[in-house]
Amino acid sequence: MKKDNIPLFFATLQAANPTPETELEYATPFELLAAVLLSAQATDVGVNKATRKLFPVANTPRAILGLGVEGLEEYIKTIGLYRSKARHLIETCRMLVELHGGEVPRTRAELEALPGVGRKTANVVLNVAFGEATIAVDTHIFRVGNRTGLAPGKTPLEVELKLEKRVPFEFRLHAHHWLILHGRYICVARKPRCWECAVHTLCDYKPKTPAPRPG
Question: Is 0.90 surpassed by the pTM of this model?
Fold first, then answer.
């Protein structure tokens, strides 16, 4: 994607959705951290179904520690990899209580020191909970960055670093959500919906997917 096209690319996404938000349901930084940790290789819809039952019962590190691993598993067993996620979340809660007074830390290094929390999860928490202009590269953003030519790279980190350089500062705070939603609903994996795409003229992907024929 030509550098000159990037501001218009994001301005178009912004016009369609001025204040994008995560589709994970949460009310506190800890609820967000827990939901993102549970969302690895799972859908936001599936995570929300589980946390709607979990959070009314336990939505703090101390409360989830009180459930124990087996108790937590009962609430999240509908989510993929729930056994390992339960162990990670319990250990994360223990560290939050012992090292951070039960609060979610606000630095990348402290977040990434928590079990099951990698760079992507840390970036989501920093961006969504604390308003930092980080860009978490998930499978959707990785695909959109490469397919459109916006930020091609062989690894999520490479794509993230290119996005940090190429996304204009005024769009940086919400870029993460615009790109995720675009990849989730328009620039989908198997057959991108180019005929519905508001930014298809700015994108390097060829040939564009034609609209399906009626009937």
Answer: yes
- For the chain, the residue count is 215
Helix (H) or strand (E) holding 31, with range, is: helix 29-38
* DSSP single-letter state for residue 208: P
The pLDDT of residue 142 is: 98
Q: In CATH, what is the architecture of 3-19+141-202? A: Orthogonal Bundle (1.10)
74 by DSSP, 3-state: which? helix
Domain boundaries, the chain: 3-19+141-202, 29-128
Please list the active-site residues: 120, 138
Tokens of 153: 């790279």
CA atoms of 75 and 57, how far apart (whole Å): 10
Confidence class of residue 214 from pLDDT cuts 50, 70 and 90?
A: confident
How far is residue 53's CA from residue 199's CA, in Å, rounded to a whole number? 39
Q: Is 2.40.170.20 the CATH classification of the domain at 29-128?
A: no
Write out the two tokens for 129.
Answer: 């909970």
Please give the pLDDT value at position 33: 97
Q: Would the pLDDT of 215 be above 80?
A: no
